[in-house]
Amino acid sequence: MTGTLKVEIWRGAEEGHFEAFEVPTQPSQTVLDLVTYVQRKLDPSLAYRFACRVGVCGSCAMMVNGTPRWTCRTHVNKVAAEGKVRIAPLRNLPVIKDLATDMAPFFDRMQEAKGRFVPSEAAAKDVAVVPPDDPKRKEAAAGIECIGCAVCHSACDVVAWRPDYLGPAALNRAWTLVNDVRDGDRQGHLAAVAVDAGCHACHSHQSCAEHCPVGLNPSRSIAGLKQLVLWAAVRGEL
Amino acid sequence: MRKHRSYRAFLVHRISGVALALFLPVHLVVLGLAVEAAALDRFLVWSAQPLVKAAEAGLVVLLAIHAFGGLRLLAIELLPWSDRQKDWIGWAAAAALAVGAGFILRSFA
Amino acid sequence: MKRLELWLYIAQRGSALVLAPLVLLHLGVILYAVSGGLTAAEILGRTRSSALWPAMYALFAVAAAVHGAIGLRVVIREWTAWQGRSLDLSTLAFALLLLLLGLRAVQVIA
Predict the structure, then answer these.
(1) Does the beta carbon of C82 lie under 8 angstroms from any beta carbon of chain A?
(2) Residues A132 and A223 in one domain
């Protein structure tokens, strides 16, 4: 089991280079373990971000051999290509330093897509009864477990080509809200995603769904929004 | 990151679409030649050469793949979500190749 | 125009819905007609046999002009640095060119 692995890590900000480190291998080692080893034993100046280490907080996503992944739940033996792992900051976001990206543009999209719950009057007065098998409840439930890791945002080529695009995570969030019967501003949510770089900018590449670490399908959510926005626009309700 | 079926389907759809959009004006100009039947016939004789026919078969496949792939996209965007939508990529490709094969067979029949 | 992209999307998908059956019909006619070689007389004999053919091709030309022009605009916006008003006007010009060529061809075969 003992041996070493060549780990190449991005150093710098937008401009920078890959620096190679030798890291001893361990059983069940994760990519985050590699980065942590480098920071603790080899170069304490390495900047990266993590918190929970168990796939809940969504803060440790990075590019691993060119693919965006949650590093705390990505085993090295699954991704090491020819005894080598290349780790870079998430794509489609500004780099602050080394592996730490500026997540602000990602969370700004959530705000622009009006990804916040607006309680209806009825919901504010009393506990809403939402049957678990209600179709809208199921749609909302299918998209609700987003951990905000920005892996989808990073995997999406439409985000790369049109930086103002709201992106898969924000649109998925909006979809859960238009399906929430307690939400009082359906029109507002639809108007927010009907903007020029809104839901219909999506080309159904489905890279978001391919890469989502918790198995959500933002493509499906966006397809749902496209239909709602389309019919609202045609009926003149937007 | 781009190594999955639906991304490849997107690329095929986009590239075939651009090719068709650029070919369409040429196609329409040639049809306009029919004002003078003899001019259109001269073109049709030229286009009956095997190499030109093969190129035409390519155009037919482009049109078919864009149409069948486009039907898949319309289904994704206008119908309730189906997890089978990725299988439609294969069906669309097979249907387009069948149309191309049919064109070649009938051209030389 | 407010929500220009949304309305272009709707025009793009709407024209696609019109084109889908027409393209399938077109492919059928191609496969039918290509056998034994093409002649102008054969093509014109078919298109002049009924007013439905020119009407169908006119609809085809309009839908293709809308669909092709909007589609190219999206590709150019995403894959090149060209965007803004000059691209929008060029898109309109390309759509009008396709429309003009298409309707001229329909007129000839009618």
Answers:
(1) no
(2) yes
